[in-house]
Amino acid sequence: MNKGKVTNWLLVLSLAVLLFGSGFKLGEFKALENSRSGSSYSLRNATPPPNIKSKEVDFGLFWETWDKVEQKFIDKKKVDPQKMFYGAIKGLVSSLEDPYTFFLTPDENKDSKADLEGKFEGIGAQLGLKSGRVVVIAPLKNSPAVQAGIQAGDYIVKVDGQSTKNWTLPQTVSKIRGKKGTTVKLTLLRGEKEFDVTITREQILVDSIDLSFEGKKGCKSNCEQVAVLKINQFGENTNNEWDRAVDQVKLRWGEGKIKGLVVDLRDNPGGFLESSVHVASEFLPEGKLVVKQESSVSENREYVATRQGKLLDIPVVVIINKGSASASEILAGALRDQKRAQLVGEKSFGKGSVQEALDLSRGAGLHVTIAKWILPGGAWINGKGIEPETKVENKLKEGNTITREDDLQLETAIGKLIK
Predict the structure, then answer these.
(1) Same domain for 194 and 219?
(2) 329 and 412: one domain?
(3) Per-residue confidence of the chain (419 residues) as pLDDT tens digits?
(4) Is residue 316 domain-shared with residue 214, that is, in the same domain?
(5) 193 belongs to the catalytic site
(6) Which of 64, 67, 74, 146 is deepest in the core (most CB within 10 A)?
(7) Co-location of 292 and 165 in the same domain
């Protein structure tokens, strides 16, 4: 065999190997693109339902990435198919760039439901996102968070030394929660000051409603009183607890023993819209507008007072602060716009969107923003909050929690009812 023929033969052989290799890789990629069945995985329900609008989605890149992670990632113990699957769904939902739309794993969904039932284990603080940062909307009454001196408006910058930058709400909650008796270290930012607090987790039991009867500070005998109804959240038990408390208020009002009612919505992070409408219906004539819901995917809807209220004629003052959010802002805004109550305190949080909590298969969940709500006066307060007519700030010494003696906001509200 001469040199020229050997060269030609080697060239042909090289081309054959190259073509075979290319064909093999192309076939491998096609196999990844069309199916992921093999010794490790078997896809189920891979065909999208007919109502999915995006008809042509090439999943080749997804599976190529999955494949490379499995092949190359150094810590094989962390390559957990279930976590990777849930992580992919979380990424899909987070691409919408709405902090209130998020996917919940089965464990996270279970915890979320426990919140609204008023029972869970953790530190007892409602969290939110503001400008992409994790913020304390409100510490819950008598909780470990309150005992540790955490305040509404504190930013959580680290959890056990891990930065919370780009964390989702469910991710943050899952890191902070834990079994009773265990501890968690939070790095907080308050104003310009950054500091650490270590908190022991406890079982958190949250009553939706607290009722008391108060007079002006310093009054010793024969004091005129008002009812103070503190609404901590709008949860599973709120309506029943509210109805029982209102019966006591109505009785004293009918007997002339109180001069009015203070509805305290401070540090109330919200909850069920229907519960805020139920409470608003106590003060507004049946059929009166509470809030309008505007949606791009369904018909706009108006929520109105749904029943004959028991406190239609009692004077009302509502207290709000920067921890008042969502459903509590709906209540405060509706009573203000309908000229039914005066507002005292600080500007509220400013959450004006509506989420629907959906249960998905295998115990997972999805909270998705479906609409925005508009107050009766036409305002959409998202990111703006509600400004009270009478602005009053409680100024506390560092590390202190509020007491009746320090509570200038409550004293101001009572003063508007007791002249």
Answers:
(1) no
(2) yes
(3) 443 433 333 333 333 333 333 333 333 333 334 444 443 567 777 777 777 776 677 888 998 999 999 999 999 889 999 999 999 999 999 999 888 899 999 988 887 776 655 567 899 888 888 778 899 987 887 889 999 999 988 999 999 999 999 888 878 988 998 889 999 999 999 999 999 999 999 988 778 899 999 999 888 888 999 999 999 989 888 999 999 999 999 999 999 999 999 999 998 988 888 999 999 999 999 999 999 999 877 889 999 999 999 999 999 999 999 989 999 999 999 999 999 999 999 999 999 987 888 999 989 999 998 889 999 999 999 989 999 999 999 986 654 556 788 899 999 999 999 98
(4) yes
(5) no
(6) 146
(7) no
Dist CA 270 CA 351 (whole Å): 9
Domain that holds residue 174: 119-204
Same domain, 216 and 337: yes
Q: In sequence order, what DSSP letters do the residues of 118-182 get, joined into one string? A: TEEEE--EEEEEETTEEEEEEEPTT-HHHHTT--TT-EEEEETTEE-TT--HHHHHHHH---TT-
Exactly one of 143, 208, 326, 348 is catalytic; name it: 326
Residues 282 and 241: their CA atoms lie apart, in Å, by: 14
Rounded-to-integer distance, Cα 190 and Cα 407, Å: 21
Q: Domain holding 225: CATH number? A: 3.90.226.10
185 and 236, same domain (yes or no): no
**Beta bridge partner(s), residue 159:** 162, 186
Residue 154 annotated in active site: no
Of the residues 186, 204, 222, the one at which a domain ends: 204
**Catalytic pick among 264, 337, 348, 407:** 337
- Has 351 been annotated as catalytic? yes
Q: Identify the domain boundary among 172, 188, 204.
A: 204
The label of the residue with tokens 């049946």 reads 286
Catalytic residue among 264, 351, 407, 416: 351
